[in-house]
Design a protein that fits this description.
By secondary structure, the chain is of the alpha+beta class. It has helices spanning about 5-15, 25-30, 30-35, 45-65, 80-85, 110-120, and strands at about 20, 25, 70-75, 100-105, 125-130, 135-140, 150-155, 165, 185-190, 195-200, 205-210, 215-225, 225-230, 235-240, 245. It contains six helices and 15 strands. The longest helix has 22 residues, at about 45-65. Bound molecules: zinc ion.
Length: about 260
């Protein structure tokens, strides 16, 4: 078979391919940044296998229990994409083991979180930002019954580190270090007008301030596409696209 027809065949396959009953291949690999930067974001066989596992063991049981659509905000991220959005170390999104999900309709994110925590096996479960009552979204990962740590974390907007341990979970052979003592990095704001500082790392989060072009900031943590910064007067989250890093090796905690 020549390359042309082979490629066509693969693309045709991709279009109909499903990760699980309720997650399409397109949903599993969608990324704004990948589209904007024309980056390919496709899992290999092994990553696809991992995606299918977390979808089958966590997403589908949830979906079935609540019988409402659950939004998949971010699932697979290639290493290149993860780098492009600010993550320097390998996150479980890069192996296909993690997904970020959000409830729809009458269901709350807390209900999803509680259900996973109580009823399902998982590797890491993260209450992502939000309030005491409800997280903004949920990060959940799955490896295998043997490797799953059942570790529960919570990310907090003003936290340093961002991730706090709710339940340490099981010790496994080689626990992945997720909460590291971090040195801060430095960066410079590069923006035409003003850079909005937000309370949490989402586009629709409350604005807590603005930074001028050329302003020097200290970066204390990161999330995909976002940096948590501190300057003399301000602290909060800004789009990573508008911060030029002073080139040093990253010592930041990875995005989970
Ligand atoms: Zn995540």
């Amino acid at each position: 078979m020549d390359v042309y027809f082979y490629t066509k065949l693969v693309f045709k396959d991709m279009a109909v391919l499903k990760i699980s009953k309720n997650i399409s291949f397109k949903q599993g690999t969608f990324s704004d940044t990948a589209i904007r930067r024309r980056m390919k974001n496709e899992p290999n066989e092994e990553q696809l296998k991992a995606m299918k596992k977390v979808a089958k063991k966590v997403f589908e049981p949830l979906r079935e229990n609540f019988n409402e659509p659950i939004r998949v905000n971010s699932f697979f991220r290639s290493i290149a994409l993860n780098k492009a959005i600010g993550g320097n170390r390998t996150s479980q999104h890069c192996t296909g083991e993690a997904m970020d999900i959000e409830a729809t309709n009458e269901i709350t994110n807390k209900k999803l979180y509680d259900y996973i925590k109580k009823n399902l096996d998982f590797d890491q479960l993260v209450w992502e930002f939000g309030t005491e009552k409800n997280p903004d979204w949920i990060h959940v990962s799955y490896k295998s019954p043997k490797e799953n740590r059942n570790r529960v974390l919570r990310s907090v907007a003003e936290g340093n580190p961002v991730y706090q341990v709710v339940e340490a979970g099981k010790e496994v052979a080689e626990p992945e270090v997720v909460i590291s003592k971090k040195k801060s990095r430095k960066g410079t704001v590069t923006v035409k007008t003003l850079l909005t500082v937000r309370k949490i790392p989402t586009k629709d989060s409350k604005a807590v301030g603005q930074l001028e072009n050329g302003k020097k900031v200290k970066i204390i943590s990161e999330e995909p596409g976002w940096y948590q910064i501190k300057s003399e007067k301000q602290s909060g989250w800004v789009s990573a696209d508008h911060i030029k890093l002073k080139s040093t090796k990253s010592t930041l905690a990875p995005e989970l």
